[in-house]
């Protein structure tokens, strides 16, 4: 099982042409795009952009360290024994936080800000952070939470403008977020809108990790966990600040997981699946809808 994020397959005439061409051996982006798209002499940066848009994350193709594209074979998909490639200390995690215009991408809500922080070998490194023009108004109730106004995003890039760069940061790494289903839903919806390909891969939720690893902590929202670990969030309810705080929390939770005997990502996922053994009390649905001012993102 691969651990890193990727895009789901979307075979087309172009990908089939690429597979046929690469069956003869690896090729650089310019040569490949010249054949596949019938664009001889395309500038190198244009060819690289097109190749990434068409083939990055596709299970049939792989980009080598020297920048050449080739067919991905079975040996590449599983070259190491189980439990070695997923060692926690060797994993690269990408901690993601998004701010949005609302709570549901299915209802037309869009991303207004996205930040990505890389965690590897105990280091926390911000690698991506930008406001996004959501191409729709931001409700006043959301502005009150995030302090992101239309004036701030009207000249910001649209998601389509940053999608390739964002995918380059995410691809091959383990997705992490606080309330991960929220960030994953929005990011996947935005990426699929641009690429027509779904986001796939393994993901971790720091809320779920805290529930399993910190049973002594009553609340597991971002503020509560930051307070528990003595972490200062320099920009609460902004993507950059929340992503950095979540990354620092992740490091502490990974230490707690190792103390519980988790040496690999597989070990950690097994631990999270076992649950705490406590039965949840059934909740009665609220009679009134939740107000928009509730913080549903963290």
Structure description:
The protein is an alpha/beta fold. Helix content is 40%, strand content 15%. The chain contains 12 helices and 9 strands. It has a 5-stranded mixed β-sheet with strand order 6-5-4-7-9, sandwiched between helices. The protein has a two-stranded antiparallel sheet with strand order 1-8. The C terminus is likely disordered.
Low-confidence stretches: 74-86, 276-282, 286-297
Helix content: 40-55%
| CATH architectural label of the largest domain | 2-Layer Sandwich
CA-atom Rg in angstroms: 21 Å
CATH class of the largest domain: Alpha Beta
Biggest sheet overview:
5 strands, mixed
Q: How many extended strands?
A: 9
Strand order of the largest sheet: 6-5-4-7-9
Q: Structural class per helix/strand content? A: alpha/beta
Mean pLDDT across the residues is 82
What name goes with the CATH superfamily of the largest domain? Ribonuclease H-like superfamily/Ribonuclease H
Q: So what's the overall shape?
A: globular
Distance between the termini: 29 Å
- Relative strand content: 5-15%
Number of helices: 12
User: H/E order of the elements?
Assistant: EHHHEEHEEEHHHEHEEHHHH
Q: Write the CATH fold name of the largest domain.
A: Nucleotidyltransferase, domain 5
Total count of domains: 2
Structure described in brief:
With 298 residues, this protein is an alpha/beta fold. The chain has helices at 13-22, 29-36, 44-55, 74-77, 140-146, 150-153, 159-170, 180-195, 206-213, 222-229, 239-259, 265-274, and strands at residues 6-7, 61-63, 69-71, 93-100, 111-120, 123-131, 174-177, 199-200, 203-205. It folds into two domains: 6-77, Orthogonal Bundle (Arc Repressor Mutant, subunit A), CATH 1.10.10; 88-274, Ribonuclease H-like superfamily/Ribonuclease H (Nucleotidyltransferase, domain 5), CATH 3.30.420.10.
């Amino acid at each position: 099982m691969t651990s890193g994020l990727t895009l789901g397959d979307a075979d087309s005439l172009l990908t089939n042409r690429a597979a046929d061409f690469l069956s003869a051996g690896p090729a650089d982006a310019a040569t490949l795009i010249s054949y596949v798209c019938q664009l001889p002499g395309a500038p190198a940066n244009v060819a690289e952009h097109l190749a990434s848009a068409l083939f990055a994350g596709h299970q049939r193709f792989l980009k080598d360290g020297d920048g050449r594209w080739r067919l991905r074979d079975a040996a590449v998909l599983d070259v190491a024994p189980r439990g070695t490639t997923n060692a926690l200390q060797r994993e690269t995690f990408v901690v993601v936080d998004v701010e949005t215009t609302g709570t549901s991408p299915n209802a037309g809500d869009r991303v207004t800000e996205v930040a990505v922080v890389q965690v590897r070998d105990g280091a926390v490194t911000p690698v991506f952070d930008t406001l996004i023009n959501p191409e729709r108004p931001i409700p006043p109730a959301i502005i009150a939470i995030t302090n992101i106004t239309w004036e701030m995003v009207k000249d910001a890039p649209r998601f389509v403008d940053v999608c390739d760069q964002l995918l380059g940061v995410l691809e091959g790494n383990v997705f992490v977020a606080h309330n991960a289903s929220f960030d994953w839903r929005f990011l996947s919806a935005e990426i699929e809108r641009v690429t027509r390909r779904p986001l796939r891969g393994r993901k971790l939720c720091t809320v779920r990790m805290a529930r399993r690893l910190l049973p002594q902590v009553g609340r597991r929202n971002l503020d509560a966990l930051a307070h528990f670990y003595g972490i200062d969030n320099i920009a609460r309810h902004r993507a950059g600040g929340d992503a950095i705080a979540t990354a620092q929390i992740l490091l502490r939770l990974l230490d707690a997981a190792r103390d519980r005997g988790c040496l690999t990502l597989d070990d950690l996922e097994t631990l999270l699946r076992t649950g705490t053994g406590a039965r949840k009390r059934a909740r009665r649905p609220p009679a009134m809808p939740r107000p928009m001012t509730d913080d549903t993102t963290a």
